[in-house]
Amino acid sequence: MLVKQIRSSTTFAVIVVCVAVFTDIFLYGLVVPMLPFALAERVGLTDADIQRWNSILLASYGASIMLGSLLFGWMGDRTRTKQLPFLLGVGVMGGATLLFSLTSSLTLILLARILQGCSTAIVFTIGFSLMLDTVGEQYIGRAIGFTSMSLSVGLFAGPIVGGLLYDLAGYFAVFVPAFVLVVLEFVLRVLLITPSHEIDVKQDLSDEEGRPLMSDVAGTPITGSPRKPALLYLICMPRFLVAMVGMFMLNSFMTALEAVLPVYLPEVFPYRSTDIAIVFLSNTLPMICSPLGGFVVDRLGPFWPEILGFALITPSLMLLSLILEPTEVMSVLLRLFLFLFGCGVSLAMPAMMTEITLAKDDMEKGRPGIFGDGGASSQAYGLSNAAFAAGTLVGPLYAGYIREALSWATMAISLGTFSALMMILAISFTPMKRSSATARSNSQII
């Protein structure tokens, strides 16, 4: 009985999702610092083609997340339990990792990257929805803070481990920790006991007992199926759209740097794969503090963490335009600017992800039952994850193209300008004050 309680507990659900997020992002980042070298040495690409294909491989990962998020988000709200599709993600992740490790074909490497994106889509839609099914609204920020921390640790550990192993032991050694994590993640997902929608529906009906069954008046419940798909209701809400744009922007910035830095830095500094991995430590290390950002979000609401986050991101990106010479001062400034960028992300990301949930919940409270019996939790995170993934698609292509066609400085300044525009959108559409429902019990912890 005790074991079953642990397996179905909120804490265990958060742990499993955090490990899932870490594993997927770790496997994604594992090949980032060594991919340009592998494309040259293993696939045989010329120097002129490496930047283009490095960006394409990162972008294809984002495109598969974007499309997969919509599919798995829809699936997650229509299945009795999320256990089966959540387990499916492990199989996809394992297959992608095996394919990536064995092939030297550019086409199959591209296919492996697409499969990795599908696995990540499952984690960030069904996994997040599953976790939030067991977490109270007053704890959303902290739960998301821990998952953001897992994402950040994966971003930090993946390039570090991948770069070191590639330099020390070669290509195949890079994938040994990947397979260990796949096995661990499979065991955890099998052990997890997930809630079913049937139970949730009964609870929702008991909470709404005695209310009139009308459909068109704000604040009254709507029974049965929604009149329109839940996705249409969500994307017609400006507040929800701005949160989606924020997720898109954040990941565009992160993946832009991941695509360009491994190629640009060796042109300026005498860096190898390990050196590039250490540079990535500068911006991923502060992201480990995301739970602290989530705590602030639970206390103050998403508004102020969003604004402060983008206020740090904007100048840090613009100032990267100064990194042009291989001097010691430039090396120190590079790490300082990336560190400030990471601090901004650790504040803005938990705030944006929490705002996704709060915007959806506020719409449902205003018109109970608008999303039908299954709700729209998975679909809300499917949309936000699609926007996040679109950043993986756009960021590398945009940054790679602008750097090659114009200059490094133009690329950095333009990214900072987009961050400033996002800050204006957040000020305009994100509520400054928390709702009373969100503010309840804010002195408690998970």
TrEMBL record:
It comes from the Eukaryota. Residues 13-434 form the Major facilitator superfamily (MFS) profile domain. It is a multi-pass membrane protein. The chain crosses the membrane at residues 12-35, 55-74, 86-108, 114-132, 144-166, 172-192, 231-256, 303-324, 336-359, 405-427. Gene3D superfamilies: MFS general substrate transporter like domains. It is found in: Membrane. Keywords: Membrane, Transmembrane, Transmembrane helix, Transport. Pfam families: MFS_1. One of its GO terms (molecular function) is transmembrane transporter activity. One of its GO terms (cellular component) is membrane. InterPro entries: MFS (IPR011701), MFS_dom (IPR020846), MFS_trans_sf (IPR036259), MFS_Vesicular_Transporter (IPR050930), Tet-R_TetA/multi-R_MdtG-like (IPR001958). Belongs to the major facilitator superfamily. Vesicular transporter family. This is MFS amine transporter. It comes from Aspergillus kawachii. The lineage of its organism: Eukaryota, Fungi, Dikarya, Ascomycota, Pezizomycotina.
